[in-house]
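User: Structure please.
Assistant: Input sequence and predicted structure:
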Amino acid sequence: MITAKGPSLAVLSLNRGFQAVLVSEEAAGIGRAIAQIVRGDGWHEAKSSAVLVEAVIGWLGRDAVTPIGFYANGTGPVEALAKVGNHYMSGHGVDNEDDLIIRCCERHRGARFSQSRTEELDLSAPNSRFTMGTPFAQRAADRLAVLLAEELDPEIARVVLGA
């Protein structure tokens, strides 16, 4: 019998807790304000993904998190992700390294697997698709980092994610 290897129970539990924080009333309000949308939580929007990555950095520490950009079809980054160990965190939850490009291509319809890639992203560099660099975005990232720390122990998260 062959079984498919999936994420561990600890990663699944952390993912549920992470997503619960993102859809909580306060965090969802922050996400909507950053994305400038009326419904949803806003963390799925490209404009908010850099803020979310900065919040994960504030929660887990700059030494544990690498900002990664997803480049669809060879164009500029369309989504920012937080790489922690062998896992990637975004407004969609926690993905493992093996499934990342496939999931990103599914999220960004029209992105071809063979023409898409991930690479390190400088969050301080100007980019019209993201909102980092403004005082409002930094306050939002700082507040979300506090919300994450209140609900999910950063030391446990670092161990679970392999940081």
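The chain has one domain: 9-161.
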